[in-house]
Design a protein that fits this description.
By secondary structure, this protein is an alpha+beta fold. It has 15 helices and 30 strands. An eight-stranded mixed β-sheet has the order 5-4-8-2-1-12-15-14. A hairpin with a 2-residue loop joins strand 17 and strand 18.
Length: 617
């Protein structure tokens, strides 16, 4: 009996020990979980202390346990750009501090990496940040809507991925961003914030990817709004010369949004912010950048008035269509974005080429642009595509490898060849389905099928076949996956369009960044200066070209040099604006007689015009 009781007591004691071990393990697990969950970077950005277009950034590091050295990264690329941009080049005076406040040794490694040596006790990082808009223009310049602008007491544009970075082992860390602003400025953003006082606000993000979605703009706000499709659209405009305001674009932007909402109605957003920025630039710069609940469009305020509204229509339509692709029609690769630029999507033909074409088609369908304007823009894309030497690459292969240095210059051709391929595919789809199905409907079907969760990129092609009831081998495999040259003349004839050469066989064209008030300035019988595709023409300024390659412009020798130049080259150009002489090297393109300047002409003016019927379908 005693033996039985002793065994029972021992068993009971073991059970209690086992139970307490489990409790202790659970407590340890909870403590570890809470520490892991509360890992956080607190960033302090003080816009009041902006000097020489620089701001000071302080990062307080909480609950991280580092071992030995650690690498702090800034992005090499960001969503929506698909090009190498290297934000680390704007970081100056990078310093790290331990728990005791003592400096920790650091070393810059490559463009975007800082190695923090012996970082076990890391508690704080500080550095100065230069804005990207003051960067010298080059092939590696930061696209303005994706960058930063620090104009003391006047205007700040903050894309947070350009301001803070991430540790290489943990991109899922939490961020708390505290921003102090000048009292005379307000801010606008789709990010949620909490206000501490009149000049400080806090923004919280669950991870770096969430932090990268929406910009924050500080300025003297000029806003106007409208409601449609159960959503409020807020237009905010900053104009450096104070000549442009939001009310000017209200009707134009509303008409564009409603035209796209007519086809795509299920965006599931309550507020959408449209930020317009107009700078006193001479150079052709700017463009548009999409975000989850907003877009930023940056333009020169020197653009001619008649071209201004077309630029706004075109860019709003393109960026708003990105709500479909890639922001909702999103692959697993774009959803788990690789900020180091190692992996890229193969679907840039879908994410950039299709929205570029559909934006123009929808604007024409709703009569927001003319038929001739649409065809002229298609002609410009043919012209720009001809300049590219990427015809040996499939659009899929080019997309997957676009971040490679040898191919990075071809990204813009997704707006040219990509858009032309989408146009041709729309024509092909309508012909194959007897005008019962088109590209707009296909994108709508893909959007509705995939918007709830990311998809595997290889699976998109079977979905295309399923919805269109056509075979990919007859178009997609040839002109998207494959590298077969797109037979544009053949496709255009299906909709009564004819592709012809310019009527002048001796049509020599110099595409240049500066022009006077006339859209085309004739130098002699066959040399012309024309603006580049962004229509950057001085409306209110006196501008003229004085010299090219140190030769006065009216000398016959200069004209002859231009006439016989038939390749890309740098020209040293001296020009005068408002009696101020400037001089720069600009990359220009000279067309000689052996090259062709294409235009698209509609050859059928009858009431049964196939092209008009094609647009209506």
């Amino acid at each position: 009996m005693f033996s039985i009781i002793l065994k029972f007591n021992l068993f009971y004691l073991q059970m209690k020990i086992s139970f307490f071990k489990k409790i202790i393990s659970l407590i340890i697990l909870l403590i570890f979980h809470n520490n892991t969950f509360s890992q956080e970077i607190e960033a302090e950005i003080d816009l009041n202390n902006c000097t020489n277009d620089k701001v000071h950034v302080i990062l307080n590091i909480h609950n991280f346990k580092f071992e030995d050295s650690i690498v702090y990264h800034f992005p090499k690329t960001v969503p929506g750009l698909y090009s190498t941009i290297d934000f680390g080049k704007f970081i100056k005076d990078f310093k790290a501090f331990g728990n005791s406040g003592k400096l920790i040794a650091t070393r810059k490694n490559a463009n975007n990496e800082y190695i923090i040596i012996n970082g076990q006790n890391l508690s704080k990082i500080e550095y100065n940040l230069e804005d990207s808009w003051d960067e010298e223009i080059s092939n590696n310049s930061i696209f303005e809507p994706a960058g930063t602008r620090f104009e003391e007491n006047e205007f700040f544009m903050l894309n947070l991925y350009a301001i803070v970075g991430y540790f290489d082992f943990n991109t899922s860390m939490k961020y708390e961003i505290s921003i102090k602003k000048p009292l005379n400025l307000d801010f606008i953003t789709a990010n949620k914030s909490s206000k501490i006082n009149n000049n400080t606000s806090i923004f919280n993000f669950n991870n770096f990817n969430e932090l990268s979605t929406e910009p924050i703009i500080y300025s003297h706000l000029d806003t106007i709004s409208f409601n449609t499709n159960n959503c409020t659209y807020i237009i905010n405009t900053y104009s450096e010369n104070k000549q442009i305001n939001s009310a000017l674009f209200l009707d134009t932007i509303k008409s564009v949004i409603e035209a796209i909402n007519f086809h795509f109605k299920n965006f599931n957003i309550q507020k959408y912010y449209i930020n317009l920025v107009f700078e006193n630039w001479i150079e052709i710069r700017g463009g548009g950048m999409e975000h989850k609940n907003s877009t930023v469009i940056v333009l020169s305020n020197r653009i001619r008035y008649e071209n201004l509204f077309f630029s706004i229509k075109e860019k709003i339509a393109h960026e708003y269509l990105h709500l479909i692709a890639p922001l909702n029609l999103q692959s697993s690769i774009t959803n788990n974005f690789d900020f180091s630029g190692t992996i890229n999507t193969e679907l840039l033909w879908l994410y950039e080429g299709v929205p570029e074409y559909l934006s123009m088609k929808i604007l024409l369908e709703k009569k927001l642009i003319s038929e001739s304007k649409f065809l002229k823009e298609i002609g410009c894309k043919i012209y720009d595509n001809e300049k590219m030497n990427d015809k040996n690459y499939s659009l899929v292969l080019l997309s997957k490898n676009i971040l490679n240095d040898s191919l990075s210059g071809f990204f813009l051709n997704f707006y040219y060849r990509g858009a032309l391929t989408a146009f041709a595919y729309d024509i092909w789809l309508q012909k194959q389905t007897n005008q019962e199905y088109n590209l707009t409907t296909l994108i709508k079907d893909l959007f509705n099928e995939n918007k709830s969760q990311p998809f595997e990129e290889s699976g998109i092609y079977s979905s295309i076949e399923k919805f269109s009831k056509t075979h990919n081998s007859e178009f997609i495999d040839l002109y998207v996956k494959g590298n077969k040259i797109l037979p544009l003349k053949q496709f255009f004839k299906e909709v009564d369009l004819e592709l012809i050469d310019s009527l002048k066989t001796t049509y020599y064209v110099l595409r240049y960044y500066i022009t006077n008030k006339n859209s085309i300035q004739e130098i002699n019988n066959n040399i012309y200066f024309i603006p580049d595709s962004s229509k950057n023409i001085f409306e209110n300024d006196t501008a003229k070209i004085l010299e090219i390659n140190h030769e006065i412009i009216n000398k016959n020798k200069t004209v002859q040099n231009l006439m016989y130049a038939n390749n890309n080259k740098f020209l040293n150009v001296k020009y005068e604006i408002n009696n101020k002489i400037l001089q720069s090297d600009f990359r220009t393109l000279v067309f000689a007689g052996v090259n062709k300047y294409y235009s698209i002409l509609n050859t059928n003016e009858s009431a049964n015009n196939k092209f008009i019927e094609f647009i209506k379908n």
